[in-house]
Predict the structure.
Amino acid sequence: MSLQVEKLEKNMAKLTIEASAEDFEAAVEKAYQKNKSKISVPGFRKGKVPRKMIEKMYGAEVFYEDAANELIPEAYAKALDECTEEVVSQPKIDVVQLEAGKPFIFTATVALKPEVTLGKYKGIKVSKANLDVTEDEINEELNKQRENNARTVSVERPVKMGDTTVIDFEGFVDGEAFPGGKGENYSLEIGSHSFIDTFEDQLVGKNVGDEVEVNVTFPEEYHAPELAGKPAMFKVKVLEIKEKELPELDDEFASEVSEYDTLAEYKEDIRREIAGKKEKAAKDAKEDEVIAAIIEDAKMEIPDAMVETQQRQMVDEFAQRIQMQGLTMEQYFQFTGLNYQMMIEQVKPQALKRIQSRLVLEAVVAAEGLSATEDEYAAELQRMADAYQMELDKVKEIIGEEEKKQIMLDLAIQKAVELVIAEAKEAAATKKAPAKKAAADADADAKEAPAKKAPAKKAPAKKAAAKKTEE
């Protein structure tokens, strides 16, 4: 296997990878052995047709595609091991030479890790957070607890905003019922905007037993293409109307929802909790502001392919998280009206920020000569073992040298974060700290895409399989 590296513009490179003719022949033979049982030729039993006979009937190239798909991943992996450049994207593969008796040649167009020129990273000025806890904030939390502990009671009056209605419904487009548009004994909170368009608004003022025709229009970008942009009519019957009954705000309420006997004690506990959240939010916001300022003053050219790879990784991470909660991506797309490409676009700003954060923090590590100690590494392994409820020895077994290098770098990056935060200077002006944390975007999980609710489900989307262009 041989490798040539041609650097392109904007931190891209073309790797020309050549596998020997012998390796290609071995891959073709492997493809034949894998597929021969599927090929029928008169006069031969399945699985017994000679390779030359198959190639004579179907062409010498009959096994080339499978051979290439077999050979490319292995050859590409070896090329990465030999390459002195740091590749930071998935490759775009193009086959250059695919002929019997000749070396197999293909190119892999990839993004290379960009160089970073740091600007100012010490003494960054940041806003001073307002950590005061107001009575309004305490009352807001109290009202949330009242809402959480409210009970619903049936009422005999017309529907109004905030009520929960129990309804039967069936939707029609062009006079025909459509799949997923029917529900029975469905609880719908009026004003929640769970259903499309003005569906909920048209139930206001109706009484139990009323049968209503609700006219709406599906959004132009609705997840079910056959319904997108079309007017629809729902036949709705109101079965029940319920309203929330909030508990009284007194000592009895405090004793039921907390470990305190009086409302005054409970309010003081809420004050402490809000203060703690504000302190954490202020710390997170300070990190966010400092890292953003460092990024702004740094110079780096990030290739699009690097961002695209990060986008896909973030969506894949999200898919893994919701799968752990028992939800597939297909189901998530049904519930939200999103699709894979829409999610890819949604996470693009976060993907770019994650890359920028990581790159500047790695640059600070290099500039300051920061590193992790073996004791810190051992402590991190113990933390991982505790988090995953594994024996420490088992964790050590699955951590190879490359993983250790990554963990050591992550620990050094955390030191870089602590350094730039410690060196930051608070401005005199006060500013309420946002709850969002971005400094850890260098290592943070992908943010979840906002959910759009829909009244009807769509059929699960089929996932397209990538062929030769990307591995």
In short: The domain at 151-245 is CATH 3.10.50.40 (Chitinase A; domain 3).
